Amino acid sequence: MTDPAAQISVEEIPDKLYFRIGEVSRLAGIKPYVLRFWETEFPALMPKKSGTGHRLYRRKDVEAVLEIKRLLYEKRFTIEGARRFLEGRGKLASASGPAAKTARRQAGLFPAPAPAGAIEDIRRELRAILELLH
Fold first, then answer.
1. Rounded to two decimals, what is the model's pTM?
2. What pLDDT, on the 0 to 100 scale, is given for residue 37?
3. What is the CATH number assigned to the segment(s) 1-83?
4. Domain boundaries, the chain
5. 92 near 107, Cβ under 8 Å?
6. SS3 sequence, the chain?
7. Closest to 35 in 3D by CA, of 23, 48, 49, 21
8. Over 80: is that where the pLDDT of 116 sits?
């Protein structure tokens, strides 16, 4: 699936203006067809096209590819979940305060706190189930 030796960090991306799809594929350790598919699924990933139609990825595109790969392969996000995470992070990353915290929670960036007493209720229910099993 991926070549672990081909995986790099953001700091190791060569200092170039543009990268072709084959270069990005090797840097990220994924196949070119996966990159083309991700372009259709992630609005943040928008390489330019040369006059001959070749995809030209900028550094920010390569960084986005590495982040998408991390979310999908390491964090085990779904495509939809990764898309929402990236969209939410972009819109909400700079916001602060209680309203922003609520917005991040609603965007699914972190779970809502359990209502008071909910954990005790869950414990009681689990103990009752355990009693039934014995």
1. 0.61
2. 96
3. 1.10.1660.10
4. 1-83, 95-134
5. yes
6. CCCHHHCCCHHHCCCCCCECHHHHHHHHCCCHHHHHHHHHHCCCCCCEECCCCCEEECHHHHHHHHHHHHHHHHCCCCHHHHHHHHHHHHHHCCCCCHHHHHHHHHCCCCCCCCCCCHHHHHHHHHHHHHHHHC
7. 21
8. no
Which residue has 């543009």 as its token pair? 18
pLDDT per position as a tens digit, 39-97:
999 988 989 999 999 999 999 999 999 999 999 999 999 999 999 898 887 654 445 55
Residue with tokens 């991306």: 13
* Spatial distance between the Cα atoms of 29 and 99, rounded to a whole number of angstroms: 39
Tens of pLDDT along 20-37? 999 999 999 999 999 999
Output the CA–CA distances (angstroms, integers) from residue 29 to 36, 90, 120, in the order listed.
14, 25, 46
Alpha-carbon distance of 23 to 32, in angstroms, equals 9
For 76, the token pair is 């085990």
In angstroms, rounded to a whole number, what is the distance separating the alpha carbons of residues 18 and 25? 13
Token pair for residue 27? 């840097």
Phi, psi of 20 (to 5 degrees): -85, 165
